[in-house]
Amino acid sequence: MEVILAIVIGGLYAAGIYMLLRRSLVKLLLGLGLISHAANLLIFTAARLTRAASPIIPVSEEAFPASYADPLPQALILTAIVISFGVIAFALALSYRTYKIAGSDDLDKMRETKE
Amino acid sequence: MNILLPLPIIIPLLTGIVALLAYRSRTAQRWLNVTGSTALLIATIFLLIGVERNGIYAVQIAGWLAPYGITLVADLLSAIMLVLVGIIGLAVAIFSLADIEPADETFGFHQLYQFLLMGVCGAFLTGDLFNLYVWFEVMLMASFVLLALGGDHGQMQGALKYVTINLVSSAIFLAALGLLYGTVGTLNMADVADKFSKELSAQESGLINTLAILFLIAFGIKAAIFPLFFWLPDSYHTPSVSVSAVFSGLLTKVGVYALIRVFTLVFVQDMDLIHNLILIIAGLTMVTGVLGAASQMEFRRVLSFHIISQIGFMIMGLGLFTPIALAGSVFYIVHHIIVKSNLFLISGVVKHMYGTLKLKEIGGLYKRMPILGILFLVVALSLAGFPPLSGFFAKFGLIREGLVQESYFIVFVSLVVGLLTLFSMIKIWNEVFWKELPEHVDIPTSAMNQAGLKILFAPIVVLAFITILIGLGASPIFDLALRAGEQLLNPSIYIRAVLGDSP
Question: Is there a contact between B125 and B5 (Cβ–Cβ < 8 Å)?
Answer without folding.
Answer: yes
